[in-house]
Amino acid sequence: MSGPNGDLGMPVEASAEGEDDGFGEAEYAAINSMLDQINSCLDHLEEKNDHLHARLQELLESNRQTRLEFQQQLGEAPSDASP
Fold it and tell me: Its Gene Ontology molecular function terms (predicted)?
């Protein structure tokens, strides 16, 4: 039976004691560094998202106030129901 990449399914054996797992300290340090960079980028994106959300909330409130002012100038009864 073939695996997802078309490879034959090979049973995974536990590595014998003292065998190298294929990754050295340098590889783990590089992976750790990349994960730190990804984490930093995600934190930055989250900050930008929070900022945009706050600005959109301000815009929404401003638009509500402007709509109410226009309705009052036209003599209409203000309605808070949004379609």
Answer: molecular adaptor activity
